[in-house]
Structure prediction request, 181 residues.
Amino acid sequence: MTPARSATAVRIGRPPLRRRTEFWAYAAFGWLTASFVWHVWMGVDYRSSMGDGGAPAWVFLAYDGLVVVMSAVGAALALATVRPWGGRLPVWLVRLPLWCGAVLLVVRGVPGLVENLTTATGLTPYGLLGLAHEPVDRASGEFWTSMAINTYFFVGAVVLLPLVVLHGRQRRHPGQEKSAA
Prediction:
């Protein structure tokens, strides 16, 4: 098989760019919708959501309200990458907020999950930076709640980052799926 034929075979074997973008767009939409619902509920039940934190209720509600708005806008923009009405929006209006969200989720999700995983395996019993005064109790509900939350943010990064990258490729190569078929 010649190198040219093998490259063609690989290209045909992959789903068209449009289908891959749609997959990640709907995955991101689902994740952002879940984030929206979760944070709306946190705002409604803010007394138990705040825990014993020292911040005043208005600070928590302002933060949570910001996350609700960001989740709603992000969900709409995720759909804009694959829906016809999204093509009428300026590219920067879609991509810039999605890039910001993806970077924010990477910065929040990756280190948190890495710390949880290294703590769960016993590699860093005092936390990733070793700043805890006593070893983390890996059997506690607090630890596993933290693991679930950090995993959730990590999944958000995993679904949003490919969407932004693929949306950029789709905008640069709008006819690619026609030539690959």
